[in-house]
Design goal:
Layout: H1 2-11, H2 20-29, E1 33-36, E2 40-43, H3 45-57, H4 65-78, H5 84-104, H6 106-117, H7 119-123, E3 125-129, E4 136-140, E5 146-149, E6 154-157, E7 162-171, E8 178-184, E9 191-194, H8 196-200, H9 217-234, H10 245-254
Antiparallel strand pairs: 1-2, 3-4, 4-5, 5-6, 7-8, 8-9
Helix pairs in contact: 3-6
Length: about 260
């Protein structure tokens, strides 16, 4: 409720008696929350997506500690126990660093918003299974191509400049995400299986050129070398059955 929210703000040192009502009014006007029956504060899809985006980039901005520290310093200034200029300078430096860090990673927020609010998010085709929740992720085919899991509210970039297709229902043995088939365009275009999660979060330190939100052509090559190996040699189907045709042929030859 609104009263409980005010209590939490006071408990964590966010705002004052004069500023707290202004804060609540601001988040209502910006459509981050709505006030419903019983003065209940309910987050909107916009507010939820915004906070998820902040968590992807700088989780500290979602917590009360930074704001509470500023409030404490202001209190010390009022008591004559802190120098105003020093506090202002320190705060500006801190937020400049956070701002620069945020701008460098804004593509993560953009991808989440595009997947959550673009019409394609609702019209996107259920495509491959998420390794975390086992629900189907939506394939957003508009450039940049990406997979979006509504359940986990996560966006996974895909190689650009090619076609993404379903692939045998096999899953990555490292993370459980369903493999997809990537067909690159052009005369020298290659087709290879790929794990969407490993493509975005390479599991090996020597795997360079991985994409960060948008993906690059360099990551296609690295993705190919890893994931085509997974698809050929260590892929498992959705029931966990080994589909390693190479190992089967080897064992038969030994017999």
């Amino acid at each position: 409720t609104e009263a409980e929210l005010i209590g939490l703000m006071e408990r964590f040192g966010i705002g004052t008696d004069a500023s707290i009502p202004v804060h609540i009014n601001n988040i209502c006007e910006r459509n981050y929350v709505s006030i419903q029956a019983g003065r209940k504060v309910v987050p909107t899809p916009l507010g939820i997506t915004l906070i998820r985006g902040y968590q992807l980039i700088d989780p500290e901005l979602c917590q009360p500690q930074v704001r509470a520290h500023v409030e404490r310093q202001i209190g010390l200034i009022a008591k004559g126990e802190a120098d105003k200029a020093a506090v202002v300078l320190h705060t500006l430096v801190q937020f400049r660093q956070k701002f620069d860090f945020f701008v460098q990673r804004i593509s993560r927020m953009d991808s989440l918003f595009e997947a959550s609010f673009a019409p394609l998010a609702s019209a996107g085709k259920s495509f491959s299974k998420c390794g975390r929740c086992r629900h189907f992720m939506n394939l957003i085919s508009a450039r940049p191509q990406r997979l979006y899991c509504r359940q986990c509210e996560d966006v996974l970039g895909l190689p650009q400049g090619g076609a993404i297709k379903e692939y045998k229902g096999l899953v990555c043995p490292l993370d459980g995400f369903e493999l997809v088939l990537c067909s690159l365009s052009g005369r020298d275009g290659k087709t290879y299986p790929l794990c969407p999660f490993c493509f975005n979060h390479p599991p090996f330190e020597d795997l360079g050129g991985a994409m960060d939100g948008g993906g690059g052509e360099g990551s296609n090559v690295n993705g190919q070398s890893l994931h085509s190996g997974l698809g050929r040699g260590t892929g498992r189907d959705g029931n966990g059955n080994d589909n390693n045709s190479n190992s089967n042929s080897n064992s038969n030859s030994k017999e």
